[in-house]
Amino acid sequence: MSQYASRIAGSLSSPHKLRLPGLSGLAGRARTPRRVAMLSVHTSPLHQPGTGDAGGMNVYIVELARKLAAIGVEVEIFTRATTGTLPPAVELAPGVLVRHVDAGPYEGLAKEELPAQLCAFTHGVMRAWAGHRPGYYDLVHSHYWLSGHVGWLAAERWGVPLVHAMHTMAKVKNAALAAGDTPEPAARVIGETQIVRAADRLIANTAEEADELVRFYEAERRKVAVVHPGVNLDRFRPADGRAAARARLGLPADAFIPLFAGRIQPLKAPDILLHAAARLLDADPALRRRMLVPVVGGPSGSGLAKPEKLQKLAARLGIADVVRFHPPVDQDRLADWFRA
Amino acid sequence: MSQYASRIAGSLSSPHKLRLPGLSGLAGRARTPRRVAMLSVHTSPLHQPGTGDAGGMNVYIVELARKLAAIGVEVEIFTRATTGTLPPAVELAPGVLVRHVDAGPYEGLAKEELPAQLCAFTHGVMRAWAGHRPGYYDLVHSHYWLSGHVGWLAAERWGVPLVHAMHTMAKVKNAALAAGDTPEPAARVIGETQIVRAADRLIANTAEEADELVRFYEAERRKVAVVHPGVNLDRFRPADGRAAARARLGLPADAFIPLFAGRIQPLKAPDILLHAAARLLDADPALRRRMLVPVVGGPSGSGLAKPEKLQKLAARLGIADVVRFHPPVDQDRLADWFRA
To answer: Which N-terminal residues, if any, form the signal peptide (chains A, B) (predicted)?
Structure first.
């Protein structure tokens, strides 16, 4: 993630990179930002990743914010309040503040209903901003298209650049739709197209994602920056090794353990692992004695419609005895699963 | 409609009426507004009422804007551009400007997908406003909940009061849902609730609608102003009388003509007229010779799913021979239908 932080900072300290059409008035102000307004409308960085709408993006935002703070860039993350007991602001780490914005009811609002709450969310962001001195935020960084629409208004209002990360793209998802998955709605495709036009900088995780932005959304190539997501090497490291991790997790020392970790939804295709495991067992029945297939994560998104689908698949494939379903775990525990 | 105009002006010239919490800073500025930003996101005042999403609200907005302009209040109506050939601004009448805002594709965007376009629409409104001197608009008047959300942001941004008219309310519609009609979505209920809280003044058409605002949406009674919609008496008047109108419309001079005029959707219940006509014919078969039931208007909204439903009902009731379907007509022609 530190590569990301330095690239972002780098982009901004070389003003020509962000001097895009319509932003010429900002040229003189370009500099390393001191304070970033980060937008994460539909999922909170305080949520446990691995279930519901919280996953890799939450980890990404938290780690990025920490690293930015570590190099002296303050970050405020705006997210939608989903319970009434949340304080308006929570310090996630030194220099990283999470602001809870009231926009719609705390419970019972599906992700599909969030577009109708974007004005309310923007209103909450503006209210937080109104309490500050002019020029408080130097940059808006939005994640996922819902946040992008709020970021579009906020960046224009504040006269600062909009940096956007799609995380996933509707057209790309729809072009490779998993069997039984629901296509992403037109509203999202349209929304993403507008953000591609409005953003000053688009962050792609890979060169392929950059190509997809250009091919599917007609992004201007010069707006797209490829920044590979990092891994927190303080956490995800060999540490005391496989044997110790297996002991901690109560796993047999000599087992063959292919793992799925992530939210259970068709897009992430945990079924492929189950099919592979079934084929392995067909090819070598002796393997059954020592194979274990942990699935670590909760149901999510379109997977929520049939949360028991994967269990049923395991039964149908005749491998229910080797598959173990585990609820989502925190990052330290997840590192142990990877070690094991 | 002139009653409306003078009431609005009256409300604003007595500042205590609009000095609501959070607006105390406006107290000294309260006055008859010189320029109103009117918001009509999902339907254009330039559209022919009687089909699709254009109906009574379009007539209401056009007539209100004209009357406000006639008493010296300039009106700018912001609506979503639905074809690429529209000029950015069109003068509807002296003092009434219609501004077309680009927000989403021109065609193929359903009303249900518009919530995702509210940030884009707000962006377009802000862009139009940015070209003006500060304090250009003195008041925001939004119509229907989609516009209300844009109005919420615009009014706060400009520091002016928000006047909102619901036109219809989801909770009220859902409480008296016509058979076979689809309930209004939760997103709309939530959106309306937020506008009730955010608006400085809510315009109800009737005392009953005012009660509904209080009962269903917990509106503060003092915020609600009842202003009965007017009728354009220059247009809807006896003129040269029934016989002349019938001659112009090609209707028999001595016929009995119960009329339905409006968009064909379950909520407006044109089926009741057909059932009533069938009963009349049952009771007095001789009536068949001289009865004619015109249905003037196009299919709309939830009626669009089954546009031929009313034709089928007429056939099933055995009165297809007396029912005549006519496409929507302009206001002058509509007055002739009423005369006839």
So the answer is: none
